[in-house]
UniProtKB/TrEMBL annotation:
This is D-isomer specific 2-hydroxyacid dehydrogenase NAD-binding domain-containing protein. Signal peptide: none annotated. InterPro entries: D-isomer_DH_CS, D-isomer_DH_NAD-bd, NAD(P)-bd_dom_sf. Keywords: NAD, Oxidoreductase. Gene3D superfamilies: NAD(P)-binding Rossmann-like Domain (3.40.50.720).
């Protein structure tokens, strides 16, 4: 198989494919597979007819969807795969770190040694916390595994409502009555859902008003899962206790945004996963997906262009 790598190759990924007997070529040399790791402006205006599969180097594809790129090429039979699942461990660890940083009030530490303040404000997962994971796919399942030693009561939320191992209960996202309970009873809410028209501003002023005033929310999915203005207001008013954000809307968050100044908000610059780990893992995923495609099967991380993920 011949493959191209745009806008520029990750050496480790390309080396893995070469070691498996595949050949890296320019896009003009009629590759069967394109590995793509850029944004909408980096995607070629036209693909050679030889390209049958595009392997995307990351999990979220909403920018390519919104630009019409996936639909345009899918119309002529190109199939797309994302990198869902291969970063479960890195993202789950980063999610847990954000959650603990918010609960432990790390950003509130001052050089004046405000020990007495933090004695009263620090929270622990071990203290019978209820954790809701919204979008409990591969990352969510890994987070459940990581959180298990803390003894938390976990509610998993997914599209289907099918049981997620390790969770005390699983709720379908479309079950309005059950979701009312999730929002109102959880101490910690983690957002890991993909961004679709249905999940945009999933957490808005209405949802935030239902949450406990000691609740914290962590977003490691997509920034627009949360209405940023509503979140800012809820934090300013003390309607919820804190937030951990690896993704924001807009991203990056403007330097003068009030969320930066809040000592109960921990923000990381979309680093729950980093290129070093992407480069190590995408080559093997691309090779496996090509084998499945060549065998006439669905790829392991095939994107449903109509569904949006």
């Amino acid at each position: 198989m011949k493959f191209a790598f745009l806008p520029s190759p990750w050496k480790e990924s390309a080396d893995h494919l070469r070691a498996a007997g595949h050949e890296m070529v320019d896009l003009s040399e009629n590759p069967e597979l394109l590995i793509f790791r850029g944004g909408p402006s980096d995607f070629p205006a036209e693909l050679p007819d030889s390209v049958k599969v595009v392997q995307i180097g990351y999990a979220g594809v909403e920018q390519l969807l919104e630009a019409g790129i996936l639909a345009r090429h899918a119309e002529r039979g190109v199939r797309f795969a994302n990198a869902a699942g291969i970063y479960d461990d890195t993202v789950a660890e980063a999610t847990l770190a954000l959650l603990l940083a918010v609960l432990h009030r790390h950003k509130a530490v001052s050089r004046e040694w405000n020990q007495e303040q933090l004695f009263g404000e620090t929270e622990y997962l071990f203290d019978a916390k209820k954790l809701a994971i919204i979008g409990a796919g591969g990352i969510g399942k890994k987070l459940i595994e990581f959180a298990a030693p803390f003894g938390v009561e976990i509610t998993a939320v997914n599209r289907s409502g099918r049981h997620v191992s390790g969770a005390e209960r699983t709720v379908a996202m479309g079950d309005v009555e059950a979701m009312e309970v999730v929002w109102s009873e959880s101490d910690c809410v983690v957002l890991l859902a993909p961004l679709t028209p249905e999940t945009r501003h999933l957490v808005d002023a209405t949802v935030l008003a239902k949450m406990r005033n000691n609740a914290v929310i962590v977003n490691v999915g997509r920034g627009a899962l949360i209405d940023t203005k509503a979140l800012t207001t809820a934090l300013q008013d003390g309607a919820i206790a804190g937030a951990g954000l690896d993704v924001t809307d807009p991203e990056p968050l403007p330097a003068d945004h009030p969320l930066w100044e809040m000592d109960n908000v921990v923000i990381t610059p979309h680093t729950a996963n980093i290129p070093r780990f992407m480069a190590r893992r995408v080559g093997a995923l691309a090779a496996r997906n090509w084998e499945l495609f060549a065998a006439g099967e669905s790829m392991s991380t095939e994107v449903d262009v109509e569904a949006g993920y």
